[in-house]
Amino acid sequence: MATSFQFTIIGFCLFSLLCFTITFAYVIPRFPSSMLHPALDVNLLSAQNGLYTAKFFTQTLDHFNYNPQSYQTFQQRYLINDTYWGGAKNNAPIFVYMGNEGDIEWFAQNTGFMFETAPYFKALLVFIEHRYYGKSFPFGGNEEVADANTTTVGYMSSTQALADYATLIIDLKNNLSATDSPVVVVGGSYGGMLAAWFRMKYPHVAIGALASSAPILQFLDLVSPYTYTDIITQDYKSESENCYKVIKGSWKQIEDTAQKPGGLEQLRKSFRICKHYISAGALVYWLQMALGSAAMTDYPTPSVFLAPLPAYPVRKMCEAIDNLSAVNETFTKLYAAANIFYNYTGTATCFFLDNTTAPLGGWDWQACTELIMPLGANNEGSMFPPYKWKLRDVEFYCKRVYHIQPRPHWITTEFGGHDIKRVLKRSGSNIIFFNGLRDPWSGGGVLKNISETIVAIVAKEGAHHVDLRFSTTEDPEWLKDIRKREIKIIANWISQYYQDLLNQ
Known about the structure:
By secondary structure, this protein is α/β, with parallel strands linked by helices. The protein contains 18 helices and 10 strands. It has an 8-stranded mixed beta sheet, with helices on both faces. α9 crosses α13.
């Protein structure tokens, strides 16, 4: 029986007629976990194997209002592992993962750093699921009800999530009689942003934060909206000039082909698209998602984070293009590259492009309310079609789909961003910002030390939160050194905490 690869396009196009490339469409900026949702392999690393135990906490719906509706509660899931914990009597530390935009089990299964360092620190491990994701939905735990309209999904925000985490951590420590146990928060990607913000907003709850690949500066008027696509372009160009040129020249060819009689059917055959749905815009988005996702997950070892991938997938995709240098057909080359990302195992015989739009809720809701992260493409050297990011495009999309007005300045108002070095140097401490420069999100990350205790660790060859992944025997020395450095810094935080506790 033929096997297909299901890929869902969410929030893809503003217009029903001029929907060909991102030139004409507002595309929701996405982290890896909000782009693809592969099935969790709970048998690989699961509660059954003793990696964690799932529990639920009765959480408050709205932490910031006192009307009757705010006092409603919901069940928030968290995962816990006490295998190596030194116990409350010894004030042993607690490491807490700040849940991202997805099922918390997926993040636990891809954050080996915490499990591998737990024995050294004798730490209790806790992974908290973000509200409105996984199994942590308000309004009876029913996703359809919670995401039904803006009235119910309106309780979804980063500030509510941070308050959830603080409430749960404090309650857990009290129940464990571990009020003096130091808490270190950890997160990658959006979770890394939450970890950094949590340390800023709740310094009385967490003594420090490891914020991996956290683009806390990817907001309006802070960094260029072109950094994301420029980094992806450089990733491919660094592997092969020919690869870069083939990709750059492909978009016009797709456009020209789509406009010819029978052109869409030709594109379907060239890229092995299943006989379900195809449009030029959907195909371009599908291809660009593969290119960008491979750049984000350009890990030095094989991975299954988004899909089964080889080590250095960007290099492999360019090799697939270059190995067909004798072939004049651009689509054949581009398909070979995309096939590395979507079908490395070789089990798929065709691919679905789904034109369905997302329901209210999830990452699209966050990207339409507060997480307004400018992303575009310039036409000077970028391998992507030119697209000038405009706030009005975001406003149009969000008003049309969700009937709400985005708040593009709220994140920097709430957490800061402008003059970040000057502000945090005086108001913050104990934050590690890790960024790999092959990760397109690193353009919005903190790449320089802010103070002696707010440090930036930068890896030239690193990809998206590669430091948090499970270690392997094939890890390069630079990655091993980064993890050792992070452990040393965290150990110093905990040592200083214990010293301060003694002095009290």
